[in-house]
Amino acid sequence: MFKKILIANRGEIACRVMKTARRMGIKTVAIYSDADVDAVHVEMADEAVRVGPAASAESYLNMPAIMVAIDQTGADAVHPGYGFLSENPKFARALARKGVAFIGPKPRAITAMGDKIESKKLAQKAKVSTVPGHTEALKNATEAVKVSKQIGYPVMLKASAGGGGKGMRIAHNDEEARDGFERATNEARTSFGDDRVFAEKFIQQPRHIEIQVLGDDHGNIVYLGERECSIQRRHQKVLEEAPSPFLDDATRKAMGEQAVKLSKAVKYVSAGTVEFIVDGDRNFYFLEMNTRLQVEHPVTELVTGLDLVELMIRVAAGEAIPFKQEDVSLDGWAIEARLYAEDPFRNFLPSIGRLVRFIPPAEKNAGPGAGIGQGIGKTGQDVVRVDTGVEEGSEISIFYDPMIAKLIVGGKDRLTAMDALSSALDSFYVRGVETNAAFLAALAAHPRVRSGDMTTNLIAEEFPDGFNSANLVDEDPALVTAAAASMHWTYQARAAQISGQTPGMERTVSNNWVVVQGEDQHTVEVRSVDGGYDVIGAGGLLRVRTAWRMGDPLFSATINDQAVTFQVERDAVGYRITRAGRRSDVHVFSSDVAALFQLMPIKEAPDMSQFLLSPMPGLLVSVAVTEGQEVKAGEELAVVEAMKMENVLRAERDAVIGEIKAGAGDSLKVDQVILEFG
């Protein structure tokens, strides 16, 4: 077995690999950029080596620097995680020449399956069902239009290299094919250094279901069930689960056998994922193979009881897979949600900054670490697991993916797991950056998601105008009223103890208050009782039982026997209360003050309609207009790149361009003025 593993990655996946390595008694080496000098994965490792500046091209993709780190530390194996160099055959070959094990597949398999065009040809040769399309790289936008017409709209224009939703565009007509080719090519070049793009038929109303495979050097290849990843936004996975609520046993077996057949065609070794598109009749088509550990691998771990990282390490060390296909079974249900630093109310734009508060939910039966087949969620037990690479004080920068953490839950069945996800999201307290928690909560409560009626179009169909306050989970205002009144009584009681205690001037706490939520007012009476409070109002008696203390960011309670968790902050004379992503700004006043409060004028926001503002921090790639130019609604004005994704800013109305205040190549702050309209 290996003595020391260098993890050629960062963030949560680096920490994830280290947990298993530590349990196996293997020392670990972290690499880090200047932006990650104080990162969690650096602190967690036994040794750490700097590999370059903040930009990933100069650090985490810097193969010479990583090779030097291997020499300096004497690491005898490298785990690449996912992303960065995980699917780079040159990196795997360079390690082989040094006599260092690559904890992943052989270079020939990475090469064969890493190119989407060539992998599709190989799948066809192996008699694996594939999506109809054009299996050659498109030369230019004109050819993209020609080929798209031949295939028949809609088509998917897709980068041959890489993944993660980058370099992908759906085209429904010639204009979208032409524009999509340009955008996909640019993103592919930026993200993968390979600008080849091909076209294939876009399967409408599809489900994205993938098969986890595992192979070894002894000729054994097994599949470990499936993961459903249909809930996607802009081709990026949002929720993943295992098993799929859509597959029957026959389809699951057929998909698994085809995944194994494809893996055998390239003599696959290590963990990998064969991705399929599945239509409404359960016809399935090969999409691509990811020759690495997937972001969503924890849901497979929870329902199989297997530590995939440990299996990867053992296979790389020459061991055989310690079980056969007939030994694999799926128990319980697991769901993963990706918590991102992005603002769902601003079209999911990245939110950059420092995590001033970071309190994840308490883990339960979390693993991984109990050993293969032992206690990683197997047998459908309740699980809460948080995979993260940040802590309070960490910086979310523009240089890397904005994922804060992966929240993984498990239960005996799907609805139990869904409820566990909602509860855990309420307990995940993050401040300093905006997060997509409200969006995740809305998805977990959505009827189509809970029923399993999902396709990759679900988000586009159910949130056609983007995500806004109307999409939030409905909150019972009585619960918010009860929580606010209880907290206010606690603060007032404390104030009475420390002020106004001169004889004859003792301060007393009123039991009668007016709770103000927006335009609504609720008159309540609050009584302190053993274990909490009784709140009496127009809705009757609300029995609030809680151990909450002043300053606690989470107000966990049972209110009339309903378990609830609110995220709470005291804001001057009010309270901000959040549950299921819905924020309520609440004030608690005496009746006289409540009447006066309603007379306070509301400050109007300044009119910024005369400016084009950068919606996010990022790089201004181009400005498509000149001063004095007339533009029509929908016309392209500028392109801003953030997290290697291009965002086209278009005119919202007919206008004349005034002064241009920023140029291509400028680094922009959020809401920085790019140009002014005349």
Give the DSSP E fraction (strand runs of 2 or more residues): 25-35%
Biggest sheet details? 8 strands, antiparallel
- CATH H-level name of the largest domain... which superfamily? ATP-grasp fold, B domain
Global morphology: globular
From the helix content, strand content and strand pairing, which structural class follows? Answer: alpha+beta
The CATH architecture assignment of the largest domain turns out to be 2-Layer Sandwich
Number of helices: 17
Q: Helicity level, as a percent range?
A: 25-40%
Could you tell me the number of beta strands?
39
User: Termini distance?
Assistant: 69 Å
The chain-level mean pLDDT equals 91
Uncertain runs with pLDDT below 50, 5 residues or more? 369-377
Radius of gyration: 27 Å
Provide the domain count: 5
CATH topology term of the largest domain = D-amino Acid Aminotransferase, Chain A, domain 1
CATH class of the largest domain: Alpha Beta
Question: For the largest beta sheet, what order do the strands appear in spatially?
Answer: 14-13-10-11-12-15-22-20
